[in-house]
Amino acid sequence: MKTFIKHVVFTTFFVIIGASFLTFSGCKPSQNVHVVLEKTVFADSTCSYFMASQVSSPLKDSIEAGRLEIMKQIYESSFVSDDVQGWEESKKTTETAYNPAPEDSSACPGSQILVNADRYYQNAKIISIVYTYYMYTCGANANYGQFCATFDKQNGTKIGMNELITDQATFLTLAEKAFRKTYKIPDTAKLNDYNCLMFENNQFSMPSQFEFTQEGIKFSYNLYEIACRVDGLYEFTIPYAELQNIVNKEYLKEK
Hints:
Elements: H1 2-21, E1 36-42, E2 47-53, H2 59-74, H3 84-98, E3 112-122, E4 126-136, E5 143-152, H4 161-164, H5 168-182, E6 209-212, E7 216-221, E8 234-239
Antiparallel strand pairs: 1-2, 3-4, 4-5, 6-7, 7-8
Helix pairs in contact: 1-2
């Protein structure tokens, strides 16, 4: 149960923190910003995080605030300092708290909590950043997933689904079609009859996480969002050519 609760907190994190980024929106926008994210590793290179460089506030402030909040939530209340040594101490403290008593150590060799800067993609208007996490806390199974966040490069605000989509009804139909095609579910079949899907009332619903990629916009569900844990993560991509007049055209600009 603790692992499931932790998953729910992480899944909703970017929706919550996105509101705080709006405070930066009054700053003067910059044009054609190219963002460089440098990867910093720690814990014998098992963990990593991005540091924004060659970009000024407010975008840098938003990226850094989001990254810091992610790591604080993963390593709970053991935050020491925002540097390699501090995160190594935070990781060790959090993992130790989940380790069993010495007499029970045979049942669990030790917890492991990892976070990694995985990838990012940008065009002229946006940058999408993805972190992955793995959490084994001596329960039956490890929890894993990803955080996706996309930022407006001109004003630093986080882009949510409401800002991304301009035609909700058309988009929902298109997204369900792409989902069914990806997982080979016939158009006339009930979704929950396939795999271990658990859509509420058998009705397709959009995930809260998305990222821009070279091929199109990728949408993803973490563990337990729409299916049993055994199914893992669900992802599907809609090509940019199919998103014209459905997605805010400003975010599709390459130059």
